[in-house]
Amino acid sequence: MTILLSFIELIAFIICVPVFAGEVKSIKSYKEKIALFNTFTDLNNTDFYKVPYSYEFHGVFKLEFPQEKIFHELYGMIHNPNSEIRAVSRTKDRIIFDTIYSTDQFSRRLNLTAPKKNQKKFLMLAGCSFTFGIGIPDNETLNHFINTQDSDYFSYNYGLAGASIGYTLALLKFDRSLESQLKFPKGDLVYFYIDSHLPRSVGSWPNVWMKDTPYFKPAYNNRMIYAGSVGQNYSAYRKGALVLADILPDSVKKNRIIPRISSADYEYYCSLVKEVETVWTKDLNKGKFLFVFHPLSVVDDNIVTCLKNQNIDYIIPTVPGTHAELSIPLDYHPNAKFNKQFSEKILNHLTQKSN
Fold first, then answer.
1. pLDDT digits 0-9 by tens, 288-318
2. Domain coordinates in residue numbering, the chain
3. Most buried of 10, 177, 183, 274 (most Cβ within 10 A)?
4. Which residues pair with 103 in a beta bridge?
């Protein structure tokens, strides 16, 4: 089996070398032509899509300037701190969004308001791009709508585009300034789950930079300890499968995750969630932990079962409206209409739990 996988990896490497070389060339031209990007005042210009973009997916071109995410040795990636990032997404025919992402010194999505007198508890929002707010300005994010409501909570948005719960766990374990970042001594942590988080956590997601995601392994007393990056812990099977996933066209993969998710992967993911809860509620002694299945994603019954078995508090909320009404067209991230309603759902649940 190992010999077969090694052969597969060798063939894949030979095929991929020209592709990687092409990527390096395009990156150079991206740097050379970034000035051209800023000269386009008319985004409907038919030549706009020809400017080298960060990436293209199914005919949608995207570019962030300056770079939205930067490498971090421990966390894999973080959002570019203290930045105003112009993000454009478009097809050849239409603009999907053209907006600004603002971040603070801790790489969080910027809060536009300060805590009000009645806001005496923090709410740490964790998750991925659905939490961070890809495609929307600072005044349409989940944290903005939470902070402008009449509640005891003031929220901080720690969502990281492309991340999973391993990033959140690394923050809780290793960020020594977290206490001062959150301002108030007590508060709650809410983690927002979408269905790509599981494959990202176990190394079954064919994105080049996912290999740097923090990895934790089981230790004594059912705890989890840091063990480097996901990429440093790939099995031979997973390495070979990921190479194939990068090569095979969508028509062959049929949008299936390669390698496949196993029952052991579900157990591992649930252990990560339990570790986050334990670190938050016991080690840091902060407050409640809530796991939320995002309404714009798919609920995985296997994860629901393991959360029940681990006695982890979770909710499966709904927001009125169709997916098209609640998300950015051709992008599918939450829009302002969704975030406003969703913020009310989250606050109502937390308030009821406190009473």
1. 999 999 999 999 999 999 999 999 999 999 9
2. 105-354
3. 274
4. 109
